[in-house]
Design a protein that fits this description.
The protein is an alpha+beta fold. It is built from three helices and four strands; from the N terminus they run ββαβαβα. It is globular, with a radius of gyration of 19 Å.
């Protein structure tokens, strides 16, 4: 979400990251299941890391010009985003990191407003 003098704007950046990349090949329950049909774990990890890099790059591109950045969400991605912001010399703009459950757009808006009211 961006907040400017003109108002608020929520932009959803969809991740193409699969938490557990699917393995190709037949299921052992359905018949043939040869090892060459199953990608190696390091191959799956490279795919996962590549997808994450694309996602974080898109997020950082969107918030690059922000004066301050509040990061919140349910998982570990918050810390990874902060780390990547620091790598891009944007870490000083992070004003907070909070763990919260999944939120609606209305809840996100209210949380951001509340945070910046508390800063004043």
């Amino acid at each position: 979400m961006t907040v400017t003098e003109k108002g608020e704007n929520i932009k959803e950046i969809i991740s193409e990251v699969e938490k557990q990349p699917r393995r190709s090949g037949d299921s052992p329950l359905k018949g043939a299941y040869e090892s060459h049909q199953v990608p190696a774990d390091d191959s799956l990890q490279r795919i996962f890391t590549g997808q994450l890099n694309i996602y974080y790059d898109a997020v950082i591109a969107y918030i690059r010009d922000a004066e301050s950045i509040l990061i919140f969400g349910p998982g570990e991605a918050k810390d990874e985003l902060k780390k990547r912001l620091e790598e891009n010399n944007l870490g000083r703009r992070v004003v907070g990191i909070e763990t919260v459950d999944k939120m609606t757009d209305h809840q996100i808006t209210a949380k951001i407003r509340q945070h910046y009211v508390e800063l004043r």
